[in-house]
Design brief:
The complex is a heterodimer of chains A (248) and B (457).
Chain A lengths: L5 E12 L6 E12 L3 E5 L6 H9 L6 E6 L2 E2 L5 H11 E5 L10 H11 L4 H14 L15 H13 L5 E5 L7 H18 L2 E5 L3 H6 L2 E6 L2 E7 L2 H15 L1
Parallel strand pairs in A: 3-8, 3-9, 6-7, 7-8
Antiparallel strand pairs in A: 1-2, 1-4, 4-5, 9-10
Chain B lengths: L2 H13 L2 H39 L4 E5 L38 H9 L3 E6 L2 E3 L2 E3 L9 E4 L8 E4 L9 E5 L11 H4 L3 E7 L3 H12 L5 H11 E12 L13 E3 L1 H12 L10 E6 L5 H13 L3 E4 H44 L1 H9 L4 H41 L12 H28 L2 H5 L3
Helix pairs in contact in B: 1-11, 2-9, 2-11, 2-12, 5-6, 9-12, 11-12
The chains are: A alpha/beta (248), B alpha+beta (457).
Chain lengths: 248, 457
């Protein structure tokens, strides 16, 4: 049996919102281990804490208690600057509402993470072209984002997410704003990228169909993990992606 | 994020809201416009003053008086105590102040001072009238020509040493005295008619003998007694000077020997005889400022008041400075108003781009860079506003300049003098002001919580 490499380890994370009389416990002592190359579906009803879990795992939000280890490094004990750098180089996001800048061209949208990670200008064009090619938007590189359809916009957002070759992509309801056909294509694309690029993908979703296709399904209710399903498929994926990651 | 990328991003976001950017920039532009015009106008005024001074005064000369009232305004609302030693009661009719005069003894003393080259009395001769055969009589004043002065001439030329009843006639007298053109006047003579100052006492004497109804004959007799005249040859015609001291446009000029002689005849027998309110002291190598100041201090130690051309210039420039300050204040008020405009615009920009900021922060953009993004944006607005305002001021000012110059009769000078260096500094300052205005909104952007910003719904 191939060895699983642990990428994210959530240890006893608790997150509380509000003050004294108006406390809301979003996460209650959550423990979770995500292996490298996994596709993770985080499901649950709205208000269950699934988005909060994603925010805490990505370092956007800070837990009141507990740790998030990424490749063994404690994310929340990092200094601000260090964490920013870490996020710029290792993580990426896809959102339900795309959050692409309509007034900017596809190139400018996709180049944003490269600018933030301070990738030299001369290398950017190739990286952007490659990323747009992967989402089949290669011919739209100089079009304004406003001229794209909804599905194209989400593909653009995916290109932006993969351009800097992150280890982890966090996707928050990536198909929520799309019709089912377009949504399916986006999901296909995500799984394909998971295979070809070997990046770990965490998807927050309501969509059961989508959740079934993931190697891991995490069900959250009232801030607690009530169900955790790991499928075998993950192991082969993990194996190939681990190799790739090591080659880098 | 690298500075160049930040700059490019902020530039792009301004372009995506062109109307808002331009309108906010225009508010700054109004301030820039006012300030550019003010600065250029005071440049022109300063240049004008310097021109007047250098055209009329010898930089190696000091103006020396025995009384500070000659240079400084004294408080005329309070009575001045009578001082026997002053010699003359007042220098002017209707004056309520005494002015201590410089007499022959003072001149002797001053001439002896080490470093003094020569002394020239400040004399001007008030005529009873001047005229020419077959022409009307006109009022006039003859000033002493300083060899340093280099006036523009319409005809003739100024001899090396003006004297021997030679006179320079201003353009304004030409047609009045019946000359067809400037050349026509050169070489002709004019008659200067003056009254001896003792005339008034003679008249008083005659009145006391004959009563108020003084007879026509004795009046004629009296006039003959006090009136005297001399004929002067016109050697050159002065062009109406643009940069002369105000009120001296119609001054005729003669050499020092002539004006002194006439002045002595007029004042003979009065307390003002051979006494002067001020004299000109030429300093050896006085172009060298330290030598000038050396002599100036010596004279001051001796109890005289001494002013150099520079002092006069500085005094005039001080007045200009005050006026400039006032207008600049108005410009600054306009700027302060525009600062609020920039703050407002930047706040809107931050609000509009909440998600973009959230995304950038989620992607690991540093706080410092987020703040910089908005400060750059503000800086761009300041730059555009400053450039538009000062360019507009430059264009409009340049177009208006000939008209203003004509209205103010400035001759070859122009009121508005644009200084590129000043404009560059001004725009730079406006950029700083805009950045300052953008500080609060930029801070809001850096403090933005990405979770809140990225929340859908």
């Amino acid at each position: 049996m191939p060895k699983e490499v642990v990428l994210i380890e959530v240890k006893g994370v608790t997150k509380i919102y509000g003050k004294k009389d108006n406390l809301f416990i979003a996460l209650k002592d959550v423990n979770l281990i995500i292996p490298e190359g996994a596709t993770v579906a985080i499901t649950g009803k709205s208000g269950s804490g699934k988005s909060t879990l994603m925010h805490v795992m990505s370092g956007i939000d800070h837990p009141n208690d507990g740790q998030v280890l990424i490749s063994g490094k404690d994310l929340h004990s990092m200094k601000r600057k260090e964490m920013d750098k870490f996020r710029a180089e290792e993580m990426s996001f896809i959102f339900q509402a795309f959050f692409v800048e309509a007034n900017q061209t596809c190139y400018q949208n996709v180049a944003l993470p490269l600018e933030i990670a301070e990738i030299p200008l001369r290398r950017r064009r190739t990286l952007v072209e490659k990323a747009l090619g992967r989402v089949e938007l290669g011919d739209k590189i100089d079009s304004k984002a406003r001229d794209l359809s909804g599905g194209q916009k989400q593909r653009l957002a995916i290109a932006r997410a993969i351009v800097n070759q992150p280890k982890i992509i966090f996707a928050d309801e990536p198909t929520g704003n799309l019709d089912s056909v377009t949504g399916d294509r986006i999901v296909d694309l995500l799984f394909e990228l998971n295979k070809t690029l070997g990046c770990t993908i965490c998807i927050v979703t309501h969509d059961e169909e989508l959740a079934k296709r993931c190697s891991m399904k995490v069900v959250i209710k009232d801030g607690e993990i009530i169900d955790l399903i790991q499928r075998k498929a993950v192991k082969t994926v993990t194996k190939s992606s681990t190799k790739k990651a090591k080659k880098k | 994020m690298k500075v160049i990328d930040t700059l490019r991003r902020s530039n792009r976001s301004l372009l995506s809201a062109k109307a808002r950017t331009i309108l906010t920039a225009l508010a700054i532009g109004v301030g820039a416009f006012a300030l550019t015009l003010t600065l250029s106008a005071s440049n022109g005024a300063e240049r004008f003053v310097n021109q007047i001074v250098s055209d009329n005064f010898d930089p190696a000369e000091l103006i020396v008086s025995a009384d500070e009232a000659v240079f400084n305004r004294v408080d005329t609302s309070k009575p001045q105590e009578y001082d026997e030693s002053f010699g003359e009661i007042a220098s002017q009719a209707g004056a309520t102040t005494q002015i201590k005069q410089i007499d022959a003894e003072d001149i002797e003393k001053i001439s002896q001072v080490d470093g003094v080259d020569s002394v020239r009395e400040g004399v001007s001769v008030s005529l009873k009238y001047l005229t020419r055969e077959g022409q009307k009589k006109y009022v006039g004043v003859v000033g002493t020509f300083s060899p340093y002065q280099k006036p523009d001439l319409l005809a003739g030329e100024i001899p090396e040493s003006l004297g021997n009843r030679q006179i320079l006639l201003p353009e304004g007298y030409l047609s009045s005295l019946g000359f067809v053109n400037p050349e026509d006047a050169v070489g002709k003579t004019v008659r200067l008619v003056m009254n001896k100052s003792t005339g008034s006492s003679l008249l008083a004497q005659a009145q006391s003998e004959q009563g108020i109804n003084i007879s026509q004959e004795s009046l004629m007799e009296f006039q003959k007694e006090v009136e005297f005249s001399e004929d002067f040859t016109i050697v050159a015609v002065l062009k109406k000077p643009v940069t002369s001291q105000p009120g001296t446009e119609l001054y005729m000029y003669a050499g020092i020997e002539d004006t002194k002689r006439l002045n002595d005849i007029i004042k003979e027998g009065t307390p003002g005889f051979q006494k002067y309110s001020y004299i000109f002291v030429r300093v050896k190598d006085g172009e060298n400022e330290s030598k000038l100041i050396e002599v100036q201090n010596k004279l001051k130690d001796m109890g005289y008041e001494a002013q150099s051309v520079k002092d006069t210039q500085e005094f005039l420039n001080q007045i200009i400075g005050v006026l400039r300050g006032i207008v600049i204040t108005f410009g600054l008020i306009a700027l302060i108003a525009s600062v609020f405009g920039v703050i407002n615009t930047m706040y809107i920009s931050v609000l509009q781009r909440t998600r973009e900021i959230g995304l950038m922060k989620a992607l690991g953009m540093r706080k410092r860079d987020v703040g910089r993004l908005f400060r750059f944006e503000a800086a761009w607005i300041g730059f555009i506003g400053g450039a538009i305002g000062s360019l507009l001021a430059f264009v409009i000012g340049s177009l208006m300049n000939p008209w203003i110059t004509k209205k103010l009769e400035l001759g070859d000078d122009s009121l508005l003098v644009f200084d590129i260096k000043q404009i560059v500094v001004l725009i730079f300052l406006l950029v700083l002001v805009a950045i300052f205005a953008g500080l609060l909104p930029a801070r809001k952007a850096t403090k933005l919580d990405p979770i809140e910003a990225l929340r859908t719904e």
